[in-house]
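User: Hi! I'm working on a homework problem where we have to compare a predicted structure to a textbook description. Could you give me the structure for the chain below?
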Amino acid sequence: MSLHPHSSGCKDSSSWTSCHVHWPSFRCCLSVMANGHDNLVSRSRFSAADQALFKKLLAEQTEMLCMEFQTGFTNINNSLATTNTMLANIQSLLADINHTVTGVMNRLSTLETAKGVTGVLIE
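Assistant: Happy to help. Predicted structure tokens:
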């Protein structure tokens, strides 16, 4: 059985967030899993009161798990944003270094050309 939200029939979007493109898929998978367990409890030989208690506990645990996933994805996204900023800073630093090295190389080339023409190395 596929747990992809478009193939599972899951329509629960009440707690979906836009923080990460994959969060809705996990949210939907958890809903499908909870519905499956809920159906098993409903078909069990437990009393109606026990079934209601199991369903309540299952719903609470599923919601807690969803919140943990959401927090995890938020933390991952924040870390990725920080990493992207750091990489952009490194890229900028490397561009500055490249510019400086290119300037030094051009200066050395100019000095070598001048020495070749005049026979004197200008420092």
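For your comparison, note the following. Helices lie at 5-8, 23-42, 48-118. Confidence is low (pLDDT under 50) at residues 1-21. Good luck with the assignment!
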